[in-house]
Amino acid sequence: MPGPQPSSSSLSLFWDLASPQEEKRIASSSQLVSTLLGQQSALVATTSRSTLDGDDQPPSDADAADIEAYLDRCLASEVSYSLRRLIRGLASPRQQSRVGFAVALTELLSNLTTLVRPGHFLTLLRKYSTPSGSIDGFEQRNLLFARLFGVHSLVRSGLLLSHPQASPQEVAAAVDLLVELGETKAWMRESAAWELVEMLQAAQAEGSSSRLKDAVMSSLGAYATSSDITPEKLALMLQLPGRQHPNLKASHPLSSANLPAVAKILRNASSSLEKEAAEDAATKQDRTGAHNPRAHFVWDTILALYASGSTKGAAPFGDFWRIAVDDSLFATNATPERKSWGFQIFSRALPLLPASDKPLLLSPNFMRTWINQLAGGDRLLHKAAVQAAEVVQATVKEEPRAGFALVVQLLGKHGNQNFDKLTKTKTIEGLLGQMDGEGVDQYVHYVVESISSSHEDAKRRWGLDQLLNLVRNTAVPTSDACVESILSYLVVGGLFAWKKPPAKGLLALQPKPAFSDEIRGLCRSRWLSCLTDLMDRTTALGTEEGKTRRVQGVDSKGVPWLRNAWNGLQTISKDSKSFSSSLEDETVKEAVANGEKLLIKVHKSKKERSEAFETLVIATLLYIYEAGPEDANDLITQLTDCHERLSAPATAVAKRNDEEEEEISGIELLLDYLVGLLERPSAFLRAVTEHVFAAYVPDMNRGSVEHLVDQLGLNEEPEGAEGEDDEDDEMEDREEAGETSEATSSDSDDEDEDDEDDDEEVDEDLRNAVSEVLKAAGMADEDEDEDAADPDAEGVDKDVARPQVNGDDSDNESVPDLTDDQMMQIDDQLGDIFRARLQSRKETKEAKAESVAFQHKVLDLLAIFAKRRSSSAEVLVLARPLFVLASEGDDIDRSLATKAGTVLRSSICKAKEMPQVDEDGLEGVLEDLEAVHGLARRTTSGDLASLASVVNLYLTRICLGEAGDELNAKLIRLYEETLKDFLTRSASQLKPSFLLDALKRFPRLGWQLRSVLLEGCSLSASIKAFRQQQAFQMLLAVLNQAAGAVELKEQVVTKAMPEVATVVFSSIAFATASHSTSSEGGASAGKVKELLKFALQAVRLTQRVSATTSSPEAVRSVWKPTKIRDALETMGQSEQFKQSTSLQGLLKQMLALVEGGSASNGAAKGKKNKDRRNSVSEANGVEEGAVKSKKQKVNGDAAKALQGKKKQKKKGQAAA
């Protein structure tokens, strides 16, 4: 009798159960189960219970056929079929079929607890997972997994432990099946044991039957305590209290007495796998690796036990980790596979354990392995180590309170103070950023405590660096109180000595032994570095309107950090019981006293920008405390004078300076003082200078800006500007000189070599010193020395003028014999001379570096001024010096030149508001513009040419906006000179974009330059082809820009275009004349073609402009058709151009456009357009005909080849 058959709708759902998409599998499973349950409900509703059960009792578990008949009678046909289909599908290897079928089977069994018994299901599972004949290893593996997933569905559905008639024998049968699976294959043992643990946990859950619970615990207890202990049995014993394995010494598996044995068991978790793999390899049944890359699930059970706190009878977690992990998996002789397990266990344990146990994970062997693996990307376990670091970061992010303990361990005994540097990561930095304020305070206390208790300067230096990094790193949540405590500790360590430490706080940690002079200096340096960073820090402050404003250099209350530092310093100075000052220099003490008086005056003055000046006074006092300079009194005196000048009324200042030759304003005196601070190698003073300078920028005048520019030490006139014309003439002469004799060339080469030797820089002091040593040793004569002193004297050979040594002269009799001691003495003397020479060069190099660094600082001030005063006339003072500095990149530091160009380009030339300049100022702008044009003509650098173009547009915009008629004429003359230089001088290096950008940007300027451009567009002018082509583009750009201007649009047609037409027709006449047939006449075919292209575009522009004006007939009046026909006829008769169809075609296009543009009605216009198209086609007839014939030939050949291939293909098909 055939079994039940499913419907087509149910069959389609089975296919989706194996889908790799989880959502699709769940949806299909849910739909299948709901469909089956609906059919079962319908069957129950239409059939009596007696009919369903029949007269027979449920069959025994051993008879599978009777069980299937019973299920067919009790269940709907599709339900019975689906149940068996799902059980069989557990052995399918297709995609995710096991998972999908197990989910559907679990859900179905959970709803059939009253109809299907556990024994029935186990019998069917054995039937459909038992091989019927000889099978290979792959099929056997599928059947074993079918049994595993079948028991899993049985347990998860609740059928095994929740069936009202389930017996202990059925529970024991399920346990035996899993045990049998584990013993069949070693690689199935862990999975089977995991399912046994799930069964045990389900039995121990609330609501389960005590009878079945006892059966489960009895069966599993017997299995767990039998034979040798394994990790799987260990996992079961941890779930079975009171069960002790015979091989263990104590009842609790994790007791201290059992830890060595447990560690060995966990370390050799894959030993059985390896043994079985070796046996299979011997029989060539399995060639795969035996190691399991994933740590055993028993570790999860152990970690969950310690995380829950249910550790009665177990060893402390620290002991367990040390014995089972650190000394086992991370031992020195541990394999990489075991260490990989260790990293996995660490990543699992860290999020689970309480905060008190987390530091225990950072044990010695683990830390050593972790640091080594993090150090290089080529290490075998580098990815595992990086993953562990990421877990640490994520854990601290979730539990900020745990951050401090972990950081201390990473930096402590088993870690390294330079952990981030060694591992090339930012682990410590990231952890500090994830910690809360309390954790940061604890870390600061830890660092200060390590500084105070350490006996090594290296560790103290590390601690001071950590304090600086805490202040510098804005990602670390440091409070104002924490920062102030760090500053106080640094200032006490650098400027004071502990007498009787306070009772609490960081200052209570007195360093023992006391700081050395080096550490004291480092404390002062780090103190100023912290203040430098705090001055640059921006803080968000609330306003009265409820808004937020960002203020630089203040704390959360709006108090400047420098004032906080000064107040802290004063507080410590007054605490004579706890600290003693280390200031011993009377000069410094006097300067500090005077500075304090000045500070009181400034604080009481309440003048505008008094807060900035107060910052300057405090910074100077702090610098005097830190460095103790010799000119401390001078610094305070200069500040006092600045304050008096800035605070006094203008009349008082003028009265006081009546007797002086030139009045010095307060702002200039202040600027001079700030420049003096910049000359000192201090980042703190640099930051203070920029802060104060930014506050006083609104008060700066032209004189102060010029004074600041003078600090760059530049010659504003570029070298070689005066001799520009001479150089150009010489270059043109060299180009015109065509031939030279070979003898002259040879002689000149020899002379050049001699000149190169003569041009080499000779250090006369070095030569004289060497001569003195050789003369003292008798190796140089007096006469030779005198001759050497004057090598240019008459009758003296240059070679003879140099002192002779052994081997340099053929006459060796004049060289005395020297002993070894004498030679050694000469060597020492010569060595001293050359060492002194090297030292001198080093000092020169250092001096140059200091000069460049100072210029960088000055440029920063100029950039601040340019950004804050972009619309003032004083900013124009910066344009020319910065441009000169940027253009001298080959003579000075390249970075300095680049920075100058950046300031000029970004801060000045791209300002939105243009400065308002008077007539005198415009004269200076025009001079600067002349300098820019002069350099643009000479430079070969693309970057400098681009900068010159930007500056040119900026200065030209200012001149055009404010200049009168006289200045406007000068500006036009300047552009005319530059344009003529570009067109006529072959040595000109001017880039076309320099002029083209200006002509496009300023239509009025281009309109007044059109006459020069027209001269350059004429073929009668002696201009190179490329530059004439650029002239065409420039003129066309001028005309296009003028056409877009309302005031110039009419003049484009009435004034400009007739001039263009005159130049075009005269140039054509010149080109076709008999005297211009040679290329020397400048009327080559290429030039004529570019001219006609330009003319064609000019005609189209005339058409476009005239269409919008009241003169539609202007095209024919400007571009007379008769002249075009005459030009076409003349070119057709010319011997040089009569064969050039392209030139004639361009003329025909012009004629067609001109004649087509005069139609007044639609019909005539259409006719003219047709004639124009015919004319254009006729103009290009010859060339288009040639191209067309060539294309036709190619297409014909291709068609023939394709037709031949088709015939061959048909023949081949017919033969086949």
UniProtKB/TrEMBL annotation:
Database matches in InterPro entries: DNA_pol_V/MYBBP1A
MF annotations from Gene Ontology: rDNA binding
UniProtKB keywords: Nucleus
Protein name: DNA polymerase V
Residue numbers spanned by region Disordered: 713-764, 776-821, 1159-1216
Phylogenetic classification of the source organism: Eukaryota, Fungi, Dikarya, Basidiomycota, Ustilaginomycotina
Biased composition (Acidic residues): 716-739, 747-764, 780-794, 808-820
Localization (cell): Nucleus
Record keyword Nucleus present: yes
GO BP, sorted A to Z: regulation of DNA-templated transcription
Pfam families xrefs: DNA_pol_phi
Source organism of this protein record: Jaminaea rosea
Biased composition (Basic residues): 1203-1216
One Gene Ontology cellular component: nucleolus
Keyword Nucleus tagged: yes
